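Final report, closing paragraph on structural work. Over the funding period we assembled a curated collection of sequence-structure pairs, and we close with a single example.
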Amino acid sequence: MNKQKKTALTNAEKQKRYRERQKERGKQEMRGYMSPEAKACYELIAQQTDWNDSVILSNAVRLTYAAYKNGQIGLLNNWLKKNNL
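Its predicted structure, as stored:
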């Protein structure tokens, strides 16, 4: 019998494979830095909803898009400024 020894994948290789699988599923990675105000909002949302980072980010983008499509982006932005968020 031919027995081939499998070599263990490095952490970088595992991460690369994971990212490739996510792309195949139609998901996109987003990176950025949150302001202190946004971080406080994020922490409250995470505590109250038990959502993970991906769900919070996806919902934030979808809600922003909904506000934009309904002509409410200015209203939303003004509310955020008025409430120091």
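The two ends are 66 Å apart (CA to CA). The chain has a mean pLDDT of 91. We thank the funder for supporting this effort.
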